[in-house]
């Protein structure tokens, strides 16, 4: 099974453990970190969504102008613009980036954050709206004739778009760890995304998505898992660095991307699952470390894989054996870590997967 690597870019440096410098919209930094991901062998970069931060589609367009092959996974929350407008927006972006656009659908797990943009629906209603929204979005990308729609959340007449994605549609990435998320996600997702839990819990999540897909009569999506690798020349040096990072979390005024309002009682199930794993022990499996999730309130993907590039590569391969084919990896020192991942970690994983695939062909 081939593997894809996704990073993360923002318009300003900084993380939960590293203070941001410079303006919020730093064009030079945005171009630099995008090029660093491309040069380091990443396939895509995620552009996150926040009610207070720059628009992801515009960030993607700018970064695409400074790269040639990198794809842009734009986080998008259904409900704040009409799906017909979103269909045209992202189809247009897909053309201007040369077919390098993908979408990360964020239904929304934080009521407070949703309300900042004027959304007061309950969580289950948000998933119902996402279902309707994505149904319209897919049809808007493929229909060559005007169509009308009247549903629970959207109504329009005689819509047709003259701009369609380069390859006919745009891949949709989806996340969520609740039963409502599974039911909605399997209807629409090309890739289902999880945060970095222990292997046993990740296997449970994969099984839940597979079961939901079977119940809905839908194909099983591909799977992605997200981590924060912390590398060192030796395992001991990596752990020394990891504890230094942990000591800085909480002392840095982090962007809202990285904060839960109530870090001990997050509303979304994904964060609750990370904190539950952290409550049992800090270290899991080969290299998984959950102390960083506990310190940050598990706001976003916040669990680390700690060790040498070889150790962390083997840990990623453990997840690959579960059926994971996409890894979202981002560092606590965003730019420097991106470069480090490209030197050894990404090539090591790709080489080993290619070796295993070749061995499988020989024995088939």
Automatic annotation (TrEMBL):
InterPro entries according to UniProt: Luciferase-like_dom, Luciferase-like_sf, SsuD_RutA_monooxygenase
CDD domains linked: Alkanesulfonate_monoxygenase (cd01094)
Swiss-Prot/TrEMBL GO biological process terms: alkanesulfonate catabolic process
Keywords, ordered alphabetically: Flavoprotein, FMN, Monooxygenase, Oxidoreductase
Taxonomic superkingdom: Bacteria
GO MF term set: alkanesulfonate monooxygenase activity
Domain Luciferase-like residue range list: 16-325
Name of the protein in its database record: Alkanesulfonate monooxygenase
